[in-house]
């Protein structure tokens, strides 16, 4: 039997450190909301920049409440939340790339076999199969399913799209709740939720701070063909600031300050490159956003694209060096 298959639920609660972090985030959002409303009254509701800022702040309130509600229920809350995030991301990806009726069964396999299967493995803490289900078994299964209809037109392209969709939207994102089953030396397993907060907080802070530094300083675009809004100053300033934040968050992690800073830099860089890769896919299909699920933030994939690339790297570094 795979380890961790007991379904006993602990009482819903947050660790004290997580509670303090959420309290600080809510305080920052309250200040941001007051500033946004003051700017709105000063410059008028028609100002597009101010309207966009307030929409983003509203979206962050909503997303923070959702994270708080999920993390309050510990493992089951985190697994359900990221299952739903993967489902939404999968749907957005499929909507963009789905072009042929012949691909239906490959898409169905992603939704009805791979998605629930991967998250069951997270819940049951079955690391061996968790690490192999999609990069090995699904990699072989999806082209087999695609070949069964006899359609050979653009076959390699179609098979690669479904493989890529499963890897990014299911496999990569499932590494976030999988942090909860790590047995870290000298670190209480009940505190693993703090690793999720560290990962999500640092990566998302990097995205926000890149936007803020870019608006404040401006300057040359870092890669205008992929992401017209990203500047060199914004990217460097945002990643550097988020790395400092990672150092400040070291006390809630099993890392010392230098290790936390190194981990922060790695996941910020992976998040940045993840954003560029996902932007390249959008530009290839001629769209600006993956969807419009979150007001001010586009679709679900627009919000988690950086996490998709940062999460598996973070998970396996922690597992290799700290367990």
TrEMBL record:
Protein name: Phosphatidate cytidylyltransferase
Enzyme Commission numbers on file: 2.7.7.41
Keyword set, alphabetical order: Membrane, Nucleotidyltransferase, Transferase, Transmembrane, Transmembrane helix
Transcription listed as a keyword: no
Organism domain of life: Bacteria
One annotated GO molecular function: phosphatidate cytidylyltransferase activity
Organism: Neisseria elongata subsp. glycolytica ATCC 29315
Sequence intervals crossing the membrane: 20-39, 59-90, 102-121, 127-150, 162-181, 193-213, 234-252, 258-281
Gene Ontology annotations for the cellular component aspect, listed alphabetically: plasma membrane
Biological classification of the source: Bacteria, Pseudomonadati, Pseudomonadota, Betaproteobacteria, Neisseriales
Entry annotated with the keyword Repeat: no
GO biological process: peptidoglycan-based cell wall biogenesis
Pfam families in the cross-refs: CTP_transf_1
């Amino acid at each position: 039997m795979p380890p961790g298959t007991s379904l006993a639920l602990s009482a819903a609660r947050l660790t004290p450190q997580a509670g303090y972090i959420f309290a600080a985030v809510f305080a920052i959002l309250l200040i941001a909301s007051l500033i946004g409303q003051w700017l709105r009254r000063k410059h008028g509701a028609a100002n597009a920049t101010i309207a966009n800022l307030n929409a983003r702040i509203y979206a962050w309130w909503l997303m923070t409440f959702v994270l708080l509600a999920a993390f309050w229920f510990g493992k089951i809350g985190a697994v359900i939340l990221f299952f739903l995030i993967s489902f939404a991301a999968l749907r957005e990806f499929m909507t963009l790339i789905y072009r042929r009726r012949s691909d239906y069964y490959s898409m169905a396999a992603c939704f009805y076999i791979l998605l629930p299967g991967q998250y069951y493995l997270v819940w049951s803490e079955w690391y061996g199969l968790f690490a192999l289900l999609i990069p090995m078994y699904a990699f072989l299964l999806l082209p087999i399913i695609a070949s069964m209809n006899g359609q050979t037109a653009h076959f390699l392209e179609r098979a690669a799209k479904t493989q890529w969709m499963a890897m990014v939207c299911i496999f990569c994102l499932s590494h976030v709740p999988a942090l909860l089953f790590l047995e870290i030396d000298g670190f209480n397993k009940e505190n693993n939720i703090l690793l999720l907060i560290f990962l999500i907080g640092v990566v998302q802070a990097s995205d926000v701070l890149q936007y803020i530094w870019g608006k404040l300083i401006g300057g040359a675009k870092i890669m205008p063909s992929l992401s017209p809004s990203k500047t060199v100053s914004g990217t460097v300033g945002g990643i550097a600031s988020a790395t400092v934040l990672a150092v400040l968050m070291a006390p809630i992690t099993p890392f010392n300050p230098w290790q936390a800073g190194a981990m922060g830099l790695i996941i910020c860089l992976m998040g940045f490159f993840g954003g560029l890769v996902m932007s390249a896919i959008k530009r290839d299909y001629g769209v600006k956003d993956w969807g419009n699920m979150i007001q001010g933030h586009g679709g679900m994939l627009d919000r988690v694209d950086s996490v998709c690339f940062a999460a598996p790297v973070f998970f396996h570094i922690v597992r290799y060096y700290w367990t």
